[in-house]
Each structure stands twice: as structure tokens, then as C-alpha cells.
Automatic annotation (TrEMBL):
InterPro entries: P-loop_NTPase, T4SS_component
Protein name: ATP/GTP-binding protein
SUPFAM superfamilies in alphabetical order: P-loop containing nucleoside triphosphate hydrolases
Organism, scientific name: Streptomyces hydrogenans
One Pfam family this sequence matches: AAA_10
Length: 465
């Protein structure tokens, strides 16, 4: 029982000075002891329907991703951007993702394989495992032995053929066609399609008609025939590279018989093409349009178009516009475009910055592997990543990446099965392995501790506030 004098004193003090509250002394403790007070939390996953990628680093939950399952309310667009420096696991992720997608019956994949060694592309082992022969485009192969894709293939609409010819010429020239050159190309193309019916028209026919235009073409516009010939001269010289120049043997004849566009996996092996030459964007433009008109069909199949070294596409205004249209068109037919690049600065600071921004905007999924701190800050700013994600990108070890799926941001460790390992880790790709187990374990432990400390700091700041 309390002392009556103490009770009276407390009542008098409260009446005169107001209520006096007891102040508790702060408690000093360690993170390890306090973690029981602040229970760990994790953001919700993406569901359990689709392709398993690996597991979330912080929660340990399995991470499942499939753009076709998520498309709609959770994912406004099925397109995906993969970023990161070499040696951190992009190659392994791409390959296992494709292998796992192909286990579904209604999936089909096209890969533009721009890397390789020992004379074959990086996807050669996977193609062999699935019993598929890659479509190897090589200007150095003898004319009779090489594989050809015909830009004037009858499977491509007349409008598509003309658009493709313009894109090829504009990419090679580095600027758009003026009206006069465009007119010369149009009348030459129309004449070839009208008069060559017993076989597939080829580029040689276009070049010949540009050099020797028909009189009626000039009369229709009330101009001199020599003017029409002059307008088409530069166009003819550009196309001549594909016919009798350094790019011959790939597009200067009828489409090679036997290319199976119904195979579950179609690999275009571009590893013999100089990545830094003008040939690469021209090649990708031709393949893109050719696929648009011959491969993508309203048959309810879900298709994946994976492009390595995608900066060749996005960094050229004319090719970027072509693929931008393909992406918009493909969404209605179940197409998921996967672009793989090393640095975002290669894209957004290039000649096609406007087109690149539009393509990036359509990519609702972004996966970022380790980058240097400056590049990580730039990437985070462009993609709108949260600060905590930007801070850990430079610390990521091989096989671990930040995934942003329409604002759902997770740190994910990619897992590879023993059966996939020999197909995924080619000699070159060994530099992109998941790395030793111990460093990954140490990194995950550090990151979990860091996350707990941040949770404690946030809680402490909220209490003080």
C-alpha cells in the first residue's frame, strides 16, 4: 500500500504543475537481439504460375515469372529488358528461361544469336540438344552453300517489301530517303513485282531496274528518264552491297528451302557478322521484317523474340522504328520481346534516343545485373528504380539480379539445374556462371542483415517522429 503522504504530494503537484509522465530510459541492444521484435517482411511475389527463375534473396521464396501469365492487370506489356555487364549471368538466365518456356506446348522462340566462339553461335549446343539446325548467316560462305533470306519473298506483302527496302537503304546511308530517291525505288519495285512472276524476285532485279528505269515511269511523273536514273543511283549502290559487295550471299537470292518456321526454337546465328559494322543493324532489320510477315501468325501460340546485342536495333533510328512497330503489333498476337544489352547508356544516349525511350517504355519487366556505381545510378534514374535497389546493384554477385516487374522490385538469385548446366555454360559463358557458393552466401547474409538494419532504422525514425 502506498504511503498516504506520497499520494497527497503527487496529487498536489499534479494540480499545480500538471500531469507529470514517467520517461523511460532508452534500451541499448544489438540487431541480432532486436530482430525478434521487428519481424522480417517481404513483398508479395508474382504468383506460382509460369516459369521458375530462382528464389528471392531476402525471403527465400521461389520466384516465378511468365509475361503471358502476368499480362493484363499485373503487367501492361509482355516485353522484357535485361541489363548488366558481362560475366554476371545474363547468358545463363536467357538460356534457362528459353529452355523452361519450351516445356509448354504453346510456346515458340526465335533467338538472334550475335555472340559465339569456335565458329558457331552461343546457342548452338541448345539447338543441337533440341534437334534444330541454326540458320547461320555468313557473308564469307560460298554463294551456293550459304543460307539466304529474300527481302522480296512472296510471303512478305508488297507493302512490307517496300518498307524493308527503304529501311535497309536508310540504315546503310545513315539518313532518310528523300522524295526523289524514294520515288525511284518505288517504281523499280513495282515494275519488278509486276513483270517477274515465274520465280521469286530478288534484289538483283531491283538494282537492274534502278540502273535502267522504264520510260513509262518517267512519263507518269512528267520527268526525264535520266532524272529518274540519277535519283535511283545512290539507292542502287547501297543495294549492290547486298548483291555483289561485302554483304553478298545472305539476301541476294530466293529464300533457302527448308527453313522450318514451325520449329519450337529458331536460332539465327549472326556470330560471323562483325558486330561493329553496318551489316549488323541491316541484318536485324531484314530478319525483323521477314519474321513479322512469315513467322508471327494469329494461331494462339505464345512467341518469344530474344535479341542479344540489342543495341544494334535500338541505336539505329530506322531499325528502332521498325521494331517499335513490331512490338506494338506483336502484343495482339502474343509476342514477348526480350532485349539484352550491357549498358543502358549505350541505348538512351545513342542516335535513336527518342525511339529507344519508346521501346524501353514498352518493357514492363527490367532485370538488372551488377553494374558500376555510376552506371547503376544512371540506370536507376532512367528506369525509376527505388533507392535501395540502386545502392545494391554494384554489390551484386554473379547470378543475382534486381528484378522490376511493373513496380514489384525483388532481388532474385537465378538457379540452374544440373541438366541445364552443360548446355548453359559454354566455354565463353563460364565467365557468366553463378560463381562460387561461399561468396554468394556471404553476400546474401550481408544483405539480409542490411535489410534488417534498415527496417530497424525506419521503425526507430517512425517512433521518434
Amino acid at each position: 500500500m502506498r504511503d498516504p503522504l506520497s499520494v497527497l504530494t503527487e496529487a498536489f503537484t499534479s494540480f499545480v504543475l500538471g500531469k507529470v509522465e514517467t520517461t523511460r530510459l532508452p534500451v541499448r541492444t544489438s540487431t541480432g537481439q532486436a530482430q525478434a521484435v521487428y519481424l522480417p517482411t517481404a513483398a508479395p511475389g508474382l504468383g506460382d504460375s509460369g516459369v521458375i527463375i530462382g528464389r528471392e534473396v531476402y525471403s527465400g521464396k521461389g520466384y516465378v515469372y511468365d509475361p503471358f501469365q502476368l499480362y493484363g492487370q499485373q503487367l501492361p506489356a509482355p516485353h522484357w529488358l535485361v541489363l548488366g555487364e558481362s560475366g554476371n549471368g545474363k547468358s545463363a538466365l536467357e538460356k534457362t528461361y528459353v529452355l523452361r518456356q519450351l516445356r509448354f506446348r504453346d510456346r515458340q522462340v526465335v533467338v538472334l544469336d550475335a555472340q559465339g566462339e569456335d565458329g558457331v553461335g552461343e546457342w548452338n549446343l541448345i539447338a543441337q540438344e533440341l534437334g534444330i539446325t541454326p540458320i547461320r548467316l555468313d557473308p564469307m560462305v560460298a554463294n551456293d552453300a550459304g543460307i539466304r533470306l529474300n527481302p522480296l519473298d512472296p510471303a512478305i506483302t508488297t507493302t512490307g517489301q517496300l518498307a524493308l527496302l527503304r529501311t535497309i537503304i536508310e540504315v546503310a546511308m545513315g539518313h532518310g530517303l528523300d522524295e526523289r530517291s524514294g520515288f525511284a525505288l518505288k517504281v523499280a519495285h513495282a515494275h519488278v513485282n509486276e513483270h517477274i512472276t515465274e520465280r521469286q524476285p530478288i534484289l538483283t532485279d531491283i538494282v537492274e531496274r534502278l540502273r535502267h528505269p522504264e520510260a513509262e515511269s518517267a512519263e507518269a511523273m512528267n520527268v526525264d528518264i535520266d532524272d529518274v536514273r540519277a535519283w535511283g543511283l545512290d539507292v542502287a549502290l547501297v543495294l549492290d552491297r547486298l548483291v555483289d559487295g561485302d554483304l553478298r550471299g545472305m539476301f541476294d537470292g530466293p529464300t533457302t528451302v527448308g527453313i522450318d518456321l514451325d520449329a519450337p526454337l529458331i536460332v539465327f546465328d549472326l556470330s560471323h557478322i562483325d558486330r561493329n559494322s553496318i551489316a549488323m543493324p541491316i541484318l536485324m532489320a531484314i530478319v525483323g521484317v521477314w519474321l513479322e510477315h512469315t513467322w508471327i501468325r494469329p494461331d494462339r501460340k505464345k512467341r518469344i523474340f530474344l535479341v542479344e546485342e540489342a543495341w544494334h536495333i535500338i541505336n539505329s533510328p530506322f531499325v528502332a522504328q521498325l521494331f517499335q512497330r513490331l512490338l506494338k503489333f506483336g502484343r495482339r498476337l502474343g509476342l514477348s520481346f526480350v532485349a539484352v544489352v550491357h549498358h543502358l547508356s549505350d541505348v538512351v544516349d545513342g542516335a535513336a534516343a527518342k525511339e529507344a525511350a519508346a521501346i524501353l517504355k514498352m518493357a514492363s519487366t527490367r532485370t538488372v545485373y551488377a553494374q558500376k556505381a555510376d552506371e547503376a545510378r544512371h540506370t536507376g534514374g532512367v528506369l525509376g528504380l527505388p533507392r535501395w535497389a540502386v545502392e545494391i546493384i554494384p554489390t551484386l554477385t554473379p547470378g543475382i539480379a534486381v528484378w522490376d516487374v511493373n513496380g514489384n522490385v525483388q532481388v532474385v538469385k537465378h538457379l540452374i539445374t544440373e541438366r541445364e548446366r552443360p548446355l548453359v555454360y559454354t566455354d565463353r559463358a563460364m565467365t557468366e556462371s553463378s560463381g562460387p557458393a561461399d561468396p554468394e552466401l556471404e553476400w546474401e547474409t550481408e544483405q539480409r542483415a542490411l535489410l534488417r538494419e534498415r527496417q530497424l532504422d525506419d521503425s526507430a525514425q517512425s517512433t521518434v517522429a
